[in-house]
Write a structure and sequence with these properties.
Structural class: mainly beta
Number of helices: 1
Radius of gyration: 22 Å
Largest sheet: 4 strands, antiparallel
Oligomer: single chain
Length: 122
């Protein structure tokens, strides 16, 4: 049995059949030139919709495969992030996106594209 396996592998290698790496041709470089807010990424998450979320020290980035949307804190806007420095990303069983920052926890509201801030007093 081992001999047949070795003969089969030899035949594949020498018969001109070439294996192509599956899945490696779709990788793209994403950086500031493509709209990423910063090269240094501290957290990454793919959500239930297939969106890629990147947490940086300069905001939350959402990539849909075509374009990048950057979310940052907007002064005096309570529906924006509580801080630009993103420390953690998590999607719970109810498909809510949670964004941890150095200044509190935020829950992304998919319907409105805004955030609900959650602060814990120590």
């Amino acid at each position: 049995m081992k001999e047949w396996l070795l003969i089969g592998l030899w035949w594949i290698c020498w018969s001109g059949v070439k294996a192509s790496p599956i899945g490696f041709d779709f990788w793209n470089h994403i950086g500031p030139g493509e709209g990423l807010s910063q090269n240094c990424i501290g957290s990454i998450l793919q959500d239930h919709r297939g969106l890629m979320w990147f947490g940086t020290q300069d905001g939350l980035n959402c990539y849909d495969g075509q374009r990048m949307q950057v979310y940052r804190q907007i002064p005096f806007d309570s529906t924006s992030l509580s801080e630009d420095y993103i420390t953690a990303l998590y999607e719970d069983s109810q498909q809510r996106l949670w964004v941890g920052t150095t200044n509190g926890l935020n829950c992304y509201q998919f319907s409105s594209g805004t955030f609900r801030r959650i602060f814990q007093k120590c």
